[in-house]
Write a structure and sequence with these properties.
There is one protein chain. Helix 1 crosses helix 3. The longest helix is centred in the N-terminal third of the chain and has 16 residues. The radius of gyration is 16 Å and the shape is globular. A nine-stranded mixed beta sheet has the order 7-8-6-5-4-3-2-1-9, with helices on both faces. It is α+β, with helices and mostly antiparallel strands. Helices cover 30% and strands 29% of the residues. It has a domain of 132 residues: Gcn5-related N-acetyltransferase (GNAT) (Aminopeptidase), CATH 3.40.630.30. It is built from seven helices and nine strands, in the order E-E-H-H-H-E-E-E-H-E-H-E-E-H-E-H. It binds coenzyme A (COA). The site of coenzyme A has 20 residues, from strand 5, helix 4, strand 6 and helix 5.
């Protein structure tokens, strides 16, 4: 089994955003996301009540990054350095050809096209830097903003399935996918990958 080595960490820049390695000083931001009922509503994440939970989570992400099991970027507005959300690849397949994408934004930053910018550069990194063959997203069908974001970026619905949530209620889910071959026609003109990280990527 191969493994990813995310070193040097691939910092990504878009028109308005800087995407960089999630670090302990982002704990307030992660707490703000994961304690907010509107952010976690469709994600199955248990609501955080203390900052310690955010700190432990970041520690786990740092560990998983070292092991090549996941990569998470903090998203901030370049001009103000304000933390606005996160985006990641996780659930990487054993053969390294497929990864799941996940993302969230603080509510004041919804509806401004920020995740659209972030996802374009991360998807491009996934296909060009990690050389993934496919990126998937498994999400609650009712999460219309997320569905719209994926569809705008060429993801297609593969299958619907149902899970039971913590309360035993059935939740409708859908798996969306984007193949590298389809992405070729969708390369955004405004994404810049910084730091020469792609050529340093070892698989
Ligand atoms: C999913 C989520 C990231 C989508 O955020 P979003 O802000 O709707 O996504 P986008 O960045 O694509 O923004 C799109 C909106 O910005 C608007 N917009 C404003 N300025 C824009 C610009 N300069 N460029 C592009 N779009 C712009 C678009 O018109 C669009 O609005 P509309 O949807 O009303 O038509 C957000 O809803 C979220 O964080 N949800 C909670 C966490 C979550 O559910 N995560 C996903 C789990 S699967």
């Amino acid at each position: 089994m191969g493994s990813f080595r995310f070193w040097p960490f691939p910092e990504l820049k878009t028109n308005r955003l800087t995407l960089k390695k999630l670090v302990q000083s982002d704990a307030d931001g992660i707490f703000a996301l994961r304690s907010n009922p509107d952010v976690i509503k469709y994600t199955g994440i248990k609501q955080y009540t203390t900052i310690n939970e955010a700190e432990s989570y970041i520690q786990k992400i740092e560990h998983d990054l070292e092991c090549g099991k996941c990569i998470m970027w903090s998203i901030s507005i370049t001009s103000t350095e304000e933390f606005i959300g996160s985006i990641c690849f996780w659930n990487i397949s054993e053969d390294g050809t497929c990864a799941e994408i996940g993302y969230d934004l603080l509510p004041p930053f919804h509806g401004k096209g920020f995740m659209q910018e972030a996802i374009q550069s991360v998807v491009r990194y996934g296909f060009e830097g990690m050389e993934l063959g496919e990126i998937v997203a498994d999400l609650c069908s009712e999460n219309v903003r997320s569905v719209r974001l994926l569809e705008k970026n060429g993801f297609r619905k593969n299958k619907a399935h149902t899970i039971s949530n913590e309360n035993g209620d059935k939740v409708g889910m859908a798996v969306y996918f984007l193949k590298r071959t389809d992405f070729k026609y969708n390369i955004p003109p405004n994404c810049i990958l910084h730091g020469g990280c792609i050529s340093d990527f070892a698989f």
